Amino acid sequence: MVDLIVRGAGVLGLTVAWEAAKRGLKVCILDPNGIASMASGGIVGALAPHVPENWNSKKQFQFQSLVNSEKFWNDVDLVSGVNSGYARLGRLQPIDDEKALLLAQNRQESSQHLWRGLAKWQIIDSSGPWAIASKTKKWVFDNLSARINPRDACFSLARAIEKHGGLFETQPIRNLNAKTVWATGVHDLDRISKLTKTKFRTAVKGQAALFSFKCMDYPQVFAKSVHFVPHSNGTLAVGSTSENEFSSPNATDEGLDRLIEDSRSIIPELRKHQPIKRWADVRPRSESRAPIVGKHPIMDGDYIINGGFKIGFGMAPELASVLISLICDGVDKIPEAFRPKNIR
Fold first, then answer.
1. How far apart are the C-alpha atoms of 74 and 86, rounded to whole Å?
2. Of the four, 44, 116, 140, 255, which is 20 to 30 A from 207 by CA?
3. Strands 201-212 and 220-223
4. 57-75 tens-digit pLDDT
5. Where in the chain is the domain with CATH 3.50.50.60?
6. Which CATH class for the 4-200+287-342 domain?
7. For residue 136, what are the CA distances in angstroms to 86, 93, 143, 181, 184?
8. For 108-157, how does the pLDDT look when each residue is reduced to its tens digit (9 = 90+)?
């Protein structure tokens, strides 16, 4: 007997299944393409906070999820025996002009009360282990940002779920008594858009590259809209593009070539290295860019967890927690901005 069917074996679906399995529910994860087959199988893995200004419920929710992520992933890895690659090593950002410096100073001040001493956003005088240029000789460093290996993290979750009795299937199962959560990314948002005749989503293509570059203990870097994320296996991920128009969702092209060239202008040492992997796929984005979580808008009695463009891995632990609280306890802690009826 299955208590909960989760459709979709990306990070959001797996995190929901894990939260349910920890409560003792019998869980079945259904995905015809297997674990981490789409956007959740990416290579970048930057978990980074919103800037500490213009604070709102989405930023606070993400902040709390990032604060809780270290314990969450350590617990998952301990059960699974698989290394998710999670490490809270912080993020470095060069400050390239006086206007940006003033903005950084304001954010440093606001972070002191918005982040409540749980993390720091500060201006520093050194780029640390990185040779990253800054025209002002100043950099922003926050110690909340973390890295994760997206694919490995999904497999760590999957193994932990299996150890709690969870099942994985590629074909639909019939269980009239089980509740269902839809976590199928772009496919579900596209279906909702068509049936409701609303612009419920946009599929955004991303491209990224992976280099063999041993800097596994370095903080990640964000410069000129490019993420540089060191991983524990001795690789450096660089990404990613954001493309609203594309002909092939899974093909890499000149857009990635330009990104690689831009990355080499920021970290010249990369000119000595060729990518060992090129990656592309589409990522779900709701019209508001917020995550979508709660009662499914077109599947009566079912639930949805989706969206969270670029912030899905960082928000997954907290999103799954509030959804399982709703399903199991009838306690609704979902922020108003994340409810499906408000995603337009």
1. 8
2. 140
3. unpaired
4. 989 999 999 999 999 999 9
5. 4-200+287-342
6. alpha beta
7. 32, 12, 21, 49, 45
8. 999 999 999 999 999 999 999 999 999 999 999 999 999 999 999 999 99
> In which region does residue 289 sit, left (phi positive, over 0), alpha (psi from -120 to 50) or beta (all else)?
left
Phi, psi of 187 (to 5 degrees): -60, -45
Residue 125 tokens read as: 């005088």
Backbone angles phi, psi at 275, to 5 degrees: -60, 140
pLDDT bucket at 202, cuts 50 / 70 / 90: confident
CATH 3.30.9.10 boundaries in the chain: 201-286
Alpha carbons 234 and 83: distance in angstroms, whole number? 14
User: Tokens for 103?
Assistant: 């903005």
pTM, two decimal places: 0.95
Taking residue 106's Cβ as centre, other Cβ atoms within 10 Å add up to 13
Alpha-carbon gap, residue 240 to 277, rounded angstroms: 13
Distance (Å, rounded) from C-alpha 114 to C-alpha 117?
Answer: 8
Q: For residue 32, which of 164, 168, 162, 165 has the smallest C-alpha distance?
A: 168
Distance CA 330, CA 206 (A): 37
Distance CA 198, CA 192 (A): 8
| Lookup result for tokens 């995905």 | 31
In this structure, what token pair is assigned to residue 176? 């009239």
